[in-house]
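Team,

Forwarding the record for the chain on the shared tracking sheet. I've put the sequence and predicted structure together so nobody has to dig through attachments.
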Amino acid sequence: MRDAELREICSLPAAYRDSELSWLELVGRSPYARNRDAITEELLAAFLSVHSELIELWLAWSEDKRSTPNPFFRRAGSRYELGYVERGGRFRPSEFFDEPARPCARFILQELAV
């Protein structure tokens, strides 16, 4: 998988903001749709650890979401929280991480699995 394809995938929140396409259409036209099996949490985490500015896109994307059920990814003090809000607003137990790349990668995969 080329860096340009990973960058396109990791930049989907910005592309969505600037597009007239639905999220489903955008994901369906992205390199993710053509390479679903090759895009792993490990691959994304490695890419994001070098391109931390893209993590900020996903933190903002998660913060802007208001519907349930949905996963979320956010800062929690000096750590990062990956969790899930069920229908009705009930929270499942969250996972906490010291570094943002791995939870962001996992969040991206959850968001792309539409």
